[in-house]
Design goal:
Layout (H helix, E strand, L loop, with lengths): L3 E6 L9 H15 L3 E6 L11 H6 L6 H10 L2 E7 L7 H10 L6 E2 L7 E2 L5 E7 L4 H8 L3 H8 L5 E6 L8 H16 L2
Parallel strand pairs: 1-2, 1-3, 3-6, 6-7
Antiparallel strand pairs: 4-5
Helix pairs in contact: 1-7
């Protein structure tokens, strides 16, 4: 069954010269082979400020670059977030993007005296993280992923994760294996 997939490329480098972009391209290629519809958002190419107060989060204006990203997220059945691990965490730009896009009224509906209503029930996601360290060390030591909380809070689930460690290793076979895997994930829409 064909899906609508939005790819969120979260690498802060806007030129695209990184393995995360190559992985996202492999996923996109596979998704097209699988007959899925694709939209891509390159977070590094968007212009938005940091949120600096809860007032900004709840009542501040939505930056001009954010509504098209929100529409692509709303449109999708499945989200795929790619980002590199920096200092044991996702890049600040990804965090700022999630804060700006997953705001009340878009991701959740606030209801006075009640738990917020999750507006993205039925959507699925995959998070793909590239890193220098071995992936098992990251999983064991850092207890990932804080961005899952944002997605879950809005109702997205299940959320699958793909941790790709040792991306700078000399053996290029590891990279080729991951590119084939991303292509297969895209083809299957998962």
């Amino acid at each position: 069954m064909a899906k609508r997939i939005t790819i969120l490329q979260g690498h802060p480098e806007p030129r695209g010269h990184h393995f995360g972009q190559v992985l996202a391209d492999a996923y996109t290629s596979g998704a097209r082979v699988g007959g899925h519809e694709i939209k891509c958002i390159e977070v590094a190419k968007l212009d938005f400020p940091l949120l600096r107060s809860s007032e900004d989060f709840y009542q501040g204006p939505i930056p001009a670059g954010t509504p098209p990203a929100q529409e692509a997220i709303r449109w999708a059945d499945h989200l795929v977030l790619f980002y590199p691990l920096w200092h044991g965490h996702f890049p600040a730009l990804v965090h700022a993007f999630l804060e700006q896009t997953f705001r009340p009224g878009f991701a959740v509906e606030s209801r006075k005296g009640q738990m917020p209503k999750k507006l993205f029930m039925g959507k699925m996601a995959r998070i793909v993280v590239t890193m220098q360290m071995p992936a098992f060390v990251y999983r064991w030591y850092f207890h990932p992923h804080p961005e899952k909380n944002t997605l879950r809070f809005s109702g997205i689930g299940p959320i699958k994760e793909t941790l790709i460690g040792r991306v700078e290793a000399r053996n290029g076979a590891n990279r080729e294996r991951w590119l084939r895997k991303m292509h297969a994930f895209g083809r299957e829409g998962w």
